[in-house]
Design goal:
about 230 residues, Four Helix Bundle (Hemerythrin (Met), subunit A), 7 helices, disordered C terminus, metal ion binding, transport, iron, Plasma membrane ascorbate-dependent reductase CYBRD1
Length: about 230
């Protein structure tokens, strides 16, 4: 779930996707988030089924509260995203006003999912490790704690990637003009040719004007000599 959700977050930040159309990236972004939502629903059903089968109370821990809150907000955001960004009914002003809310809520939900996963890891270790106990730091506890630290580092790296301004997807009209270093963007050659032609015409007119001025000076000098 975390890997699919993080992929949906950074899909716009990968430079090799900038040459793809923005609508295609929207579809990929929506597909990844829909897949993450399906995984989340399946995991919730599995947890409730396991609790009921083992006679374990439901929704009593902070881990379960935060997880359910994340699921509800994620489903609401996914519905709004489909209605506003993918369907062609929402005006541009509504999309522009909702975009900052969409970005902030996405980061908040991602952070909430990471916190839920870390609390779930700790809760599972406390109830599962009895002999030796979790407090004695057995190898299993150390291993799972290291996985939790790696999960936290992974989340920080994802948030760092999406906060870098140089990794922001360029505007759609500029994305097609991106070329490797030393290359010439499309359309520049034609523009350069037209500019060179205009400059050449100006230079030609300047030379003709200079020649005509010198010719007039010669005629004036010839007229003055004849008068004298």
């Amino acid at each position: 779930l975390v890997s699919v959700l993080s992929s949906g977050i950074i899909v716009y930040r990968l430079p090799w996707t900038w040459k793809c159309s923005k609508y295609l990236m929207k579809l990929i972004h929506a597909a990844l988030n829909t897949t993450a939502m399906i995984f989340e629903i399946v995991s919730l059903v599995a947890v409730f089924h396991y609790h009921n089968a083992m006679n374990i109370p439901n929704m009593y821990s902070l881990h379960s509260w935060i997880g359910l809150i994340a699921t509800i907000f994620y489903s609401v955001q996914l519905f709004l995203d489909f209605a506003i960004f993918l369907l062609p009914f929402a005006p541009v002003t509504v999309r522009a006003a909702y975009l900052p809310i969409h970005i902030f809520s996405a980061f908040s939900i991602f952070a909430t999912v990471i916190a839920t996963a870390l609390m779930g890891i700790t809760e599972k270790l406390i109830y599962s490790l009895k002999n030796p106990a979790y407090s004695t730091s057995p190898p299993e506890a150390t291993f799972v704690n290291c996985l939790g630290v790696l999960l936290l580092v992974f989340a920080i790296l994802i948030l760092w990637m999406v906060s870098r301004p140089q990794w922001k997807r360029p505007p759609e009209e500029n994305a097609k003009a991106l070329q490797p270093i030393g290359g010439t963007p499309q359309g520049t050659k034609g523009k350069s040719t037209v500019t060179d032609g205009i400059n050449g015409d100006k230079s030609h007119l300047r030379v003709n004007s200079e020649a005509a001025r010198k010719q007039n000076l010669k005629l004036d000098e010839a007229g003055q000599r004849s008068t004298m």
